[in-house]
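Lecture notes, unit on binding sites. The following record was shown on slide 14. It pairs a sequence with nicotinamide-adenine-dinucleotide.
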Amino acid sequence: MTAGAEPPYSNCRSAVGARNATATCVRRLPRLWTTGDEASATRDADIVLLVVPSQHLRAIAAQLRGLLPAQATVVICSKGVEQDTGALLSVVVEEELPDHAIAVLSGPTFAAEVAAGMPSAVTIASSDAALNPARSQAARVARALGTKTFRPYVSDDVIGVEVSGAVKNVLAIASGIATGLGFGANTRAALVSRGLHEIQGLSAALGGRRETVTGLSGVGDLTLTCSSEQSRNMRFGMALATGRSAADVFEGRPVVVEGADNAVSVTNLARRHAIDMPICEAVRAIVVDRLPIPDVMNALLQRPFKDERADLGLSISHSISRNAAKSMAGI
Ligand SMILES: NC(=O)c1ccc[n+]([C@@H]2O[C@H](COP(=O)([O-])OP(=O)(O)OC[C@H]3O[C@@H](n4cnc5c(N)ncnc54)[C@H](O)[C@@H]3O)[C@@H](O)[C@H]2O)c1
Ligand SMILES: O=P(O)(O)OC[C@H](O)CO
């Protein structure tokens, strides 16, 4: 679906995707219009928001090649890492739309609450913000999208913002599993804190800044997604733990659960960079390798005690994958 909006999103001429937000906005913004035709949606656009599931972003970006006006800035709102290539989504869009400026929008925002006008804040990142934040692509997009209740903050750390958004969805599945198993506030707080450690490690390895993880796209989004049943990722995790099927939980609707696809892409990246991400590995073992939840939990809880800031290497991750390999081989 493609949608366009007139003021208050004055320079935001079009958005591709965001079905939930669109459905709600149509009722609130009389000048919002929807179309399935990319050409008419993007004609004269200054800013184009891409809001499709991360694993389909490349195909959608490729479809837009040649359609976008030269001045259009492409804003990536999807959260994930491409599974086939391990590429961050900014790299994917750069490859498909090389002539366009790119910004990344991420942060703690359930679409329905944004559409309802509840105060929310996001990070918008573009690499040119390092040189001149006020004149950067991110600042331009922030001025166009910002309202009293939708407050964008500018960053130049595209990698840190993207890694945070991709990994938090995997961690939210873990939080859902913990909730579904009946664990309480202690477990969730431990998951969030150790999850942040995992985000920080991967982000730093890829060139992101550690402090970005303490901002809206890191702590903000992770806390939101790991603590609210509005999160599809969290609900998916709860379903796994309680033995309900995803179809049952989502009432048969096709729902984007980014953490399920990205459990693989995130852990593949981590393995490639020798970053220990035991919680994400555990989610992968449960969601993808279909290992029994109690076995995976035991492996996590039996990890050796260590310094809070230490990265121990890949021992447990590897033992989980060895188990997965054995289980798949029927051993
Ligand atoms: N919903 C939110 O609160 C929210 C907030 C921030 C970021 N995001 C991110 O936005 C992205 C999309 O999520 P969403 O909530 O908008 O999902 P959604 O299901 O509401 O919308 C996804 C859109 O992508 C389209 N789509 C689905 N499969 C497609 C395919 N194979 N090819 C082309 N188009 C396809 C759908 O028709 C729909 O318009 C995700 O990466 C998500 O993490 C969502
Ligand atoms: O419903 P989720 O779990 O996809 O989360 C939506 C947004 O990413 C929250 O910021």
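Take-home: The pocket of SN-glycerol-3-phosphate (ligand 2) is lined by residues 79, 108-110, 169, 172, 221, 224-225, 231-233, 258 (CB under 6 Å).
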